[in-house]
Amino acid sequence: MSNETGNSVFLPLVMNGTTSSKKIVIDPITRIEGHLRLEIQMNNGQVQDAWSAGTMFRGVEMILKGRDPRDAWLFAQRLCGVCTTVHSIASVRAVENAIGITIPENAMLLRNLLEASQFVHDHVIHFYHLHALDWVDVVNALQADVNKTSQLAQQNNPGWPNNSVSYFQSVKDRLTIFVNSGQLGLFSNGYWGHPAYKLPAEANLLAVAHYLEALEWQADYVKMEAMMGGKNPHPQTYLVGGMAIPTDKNALEGINLAMIGNLRAKMQTGLDFVTKVYMPDLVLIAKYYPEWTNLGGGYGNFLSFGDFPQTKDNQRTDLWLPAGVITNKDLANIKALDQSKIQEYISHSWYTYNGGDAIGVHPSTGETNPNYSGPTAPYTNLDTNAKYSWLKAPRYEGKPMEVGPLARVLVAYAAGHIRIRQLVDGTLAALGLSTAALFSTLGRVAARGIETQAIAEKMGDWLTRLETNLKTTGYNNAIHEQTHWEPSTWPSGTLNGIGFTEAPRGALGHWIKINAASKKIENYQMVIPTTWNGSPRDAQNQRGVWEQALLNTPLAIEAQPLEVLRTIHSFDPCMACAVHLVDMTGNELGSMLVEHM
Amino acid sequence: MKNQPEFDLMEKETAPTIADRMLKRGITRREFLGFCGMMAAALALPRGSEKVIAQALLTTPRQSVIWLEFQGCTGDSESFLRASPSPNPLDGGLEKKITDLLLDVISVDYHETLMAPSGNDADKSRTDTIANYSGRYLLVVEGSIPLAANGHYCVIGGKTGLNILQETIAHAKGTIALGTCAAFGGLAKANPNPTGATGVAGAIPGANVIALPGCPANVINLVATIIHLISFPGVPLAKDSMGRPDFAYNSNPNSPNYMRIHSHCERREREEVEKWGDADHIAGGCLREMGCNGPYTYSNCWQVKWNDATCWPIQAGHGCIGCVQPDFWDKPYTGSNPINTFYAKRVA
Questions:
Q1: Which of A149, A208, A303, B312 is 20 to 30 A from A478, alpha carbon to alpha carbon?
Q2: Contact list, B18 vs chain A (CB under 8 Å)
């Protein structure tokens, strides 16, 4: 039970055999990044309460202490190999903010292009390879009539050529061989035949065909990151002060005019796949699951740091996707972001604060002392009344805030972003829904697709600007600021900086403190998108964002929690990032935070 | 097909073989042999080996794989997904490509990032595979294993990562430690190693492990290793004392297969870059003064490159960070270089 503000009320666990009220555990949650455990209190077939636990920890901030700030991005990048660019950019921005560096325009454009290609790549993979199996019954696809599937494909995905009867026959044959082999691999023990699957067999076969095509498409599309950054995963190209790949029309290796052509060709394959396959499939699937516009909404609070600078990186005055805060679903009253209102709580997390468990601390002066106080493994249940997660609980003005595609799209919508408005209104019209439907699991799914399309379209502009720069006689095609590379050139004194970005999963911030004498990292803090979304309770016992969003989810079969996975996957959890950790054996309270925001 | 007895596709009562599956899907014989040849070359095997590989793939059902991840970033899994990237998928559909080779050659029976079920049903996939394929499945591990706090820094399904690894490695026919974290401890092990992180060999003393380091590991090395294990069972892969296969990580200067990056670097004789974006950088110059670990790193990235040979870090203008070497994260801070950064000028 919960009262109106969402505060949880402890309910006794019923253990004596009735199934009307019981606690279930789902661990591991699969088709995410990293390690997540959910414990759920069921009552009469619905989720009555939920607890989200991050179960792995590495200690990256502790590892960063004492190192050169120019190296930080290399370490931070390895927080996640899925969102493999985002920590790099937040890190170099934090250092650039601390030192006071403005990077050249070509470097800003390259950063936008790398981030944008990451978004497109990441979101398409998420839809097909992480989320789709919650909506698509792979085994049922074997019942499909291939003639009808071909007709469906021509109608649903016009302009996409893989739609012949023989094509779908070949996909169906391949799937049949696979299933009949007895080695179902990734599809073993799936919830095939679950009553909550609603797609007709032809839609299932269409989706399976596209799942396979997307698997091939992504390996090809991501070559953009290799062209710009040497390789994917973990493009090796970010620098404090710019990027490492020369941009010059005469570059032997680098971004020359031929490379611009290669990038444009790859970019087009992305735009094609998004507009002809991903978005139409999203709308098709959504039509069969209308009840999912009433589930998974949660608090209705949203936060975006904004990203994709248009003129100068790190000034944050000209972001193509705006920053902002929305509370209580109120799109008419969007508020400006004030990062000083961010606090992290550890009351239900496996850490201690010197000031005690009840306080919330701003990342710039926080501390992280890991202290595992959970049960001894092997264990059956966590003590969800006490500390139960390696994730901290970030709050904004004391409130839990959702971050990610829905937050970005709603903030952009509320701020009057023309293209986002067009795409949102168009998608809602195609589904016969109002904006109220956005505050839901399906709304989150739709927002992800919408921003993917908007970003895939916008990339062309940045590439054209880069090309124009290369072609303009006398234009300074510098890729690096150059004059502040050596630490001896940095300002004296302790340097504090913040780096913000919007990662595919949401708002991401890095806070750095550089020691005056050594010029090495004294403190490093990260507040991560999935930490916002997947946090445990805070000191006021408010549920975390997806703990709240899971309430009232019906489960047709408790042992096969498909409906819970639908909402969890709509957040696209990235747990390795979220348990980063923050270390601030911070005894320097009161040091100045340099605000360039 | 009458004149090609080696590709006689009689209906098999048992699970179809790898080659059956490929050839039935329309991969041509030429493409199939091309794949075998490519694998033989990647493995640095003598001429004729591609025929042995082809024969093995004709007679082997899909190789069962359990893939475990511990303290990882999922980068090695993502690298795996970049396998055999296709040409434009608009060129006629799935049938003419060999891009799904890996999904036909191996049966990924447990992988938390991609598998359909969650929770108990997911763990059932792991335990069923251990039982039904005992001694016959390959174990792939990514991410380090934390030993401090009795392993509570990584718990999955209520069990420590160490416990899960011990259960699963016990019945594997082979174990691949994929990526530098699983091979040597990687990022989590970097000073001060807050969680007592170590690689598979450190967590399971005496384990026979093939180490494929890299941050992340290069998918070509994973595929080549798996093909070797399928094609030449009982013939151990030539490895060094750290378990790194010779074909990708050879560090013997007298070997024709010497993999030292600097020895093969395309920028080796060129003018050195002094500032990012200067004329020498634009001309593809040597990155020694901008920080490059090429002289101390033994890996085939210069040879096979990344993302279907699209590029590699040095080609894109940034020095090598030595990501296949044990403890590479600490090397700049523990070596003789007083500047203590990846970007310090290197002595060739």
A1: B312
A2: none
CA B264 – CA B276 distance, rounded (Å): 23
Could A29 and B24 be called an inter-chain contact, meaning their C-beta atoms sit closer than 8 Å?
no
Residue B185: how many other CB atoms lie within 10 Å = 26
Identify whether the C-beta of residue B136 lies closer than 8 Å to the C-beta of residue B126: no
The answer to whether the pTM exceeds 0.90 is yes
Residue of A70, A182, A380 with shortest CB distance to B15: A182
* DSSP class of A335: B
Dihedral (Cα; A128, A130, A133, A139), 10-degree rounding: 80
pLDDT at B110 over 70: yes
Among B99, B219, B282, most A C-beta atoms within 10 A, so best to mutate, is: B282
What is the average per-residue pLDDT within A143-154?
98
Q: Which of 103-142 (A) contact B at CB < 8 A?
A: 125, 129-130, 133, 138
- The ipTM, to two decimals, is 0.93
Residues on chain A touching B64 (C-beta within 8 angstroms): 183
Count Cα atoms within 13 angstroms, Cβ side, for A491. Answer: 14
Mean of the pLDDT values across residues A137-160? 97
**Across the interface, which of A57, A67, A245 has its CB nearest the CB of B317?**
A245
User: How far is it, in rounded angstroms, from Cα B249 to Cα A213?
Assistant: 33
Q: Are B99 and B81 in contact (CB under 8 A)?
A: no
CA nearest neighbour of B235 among B83, B34, B20, B56? B56
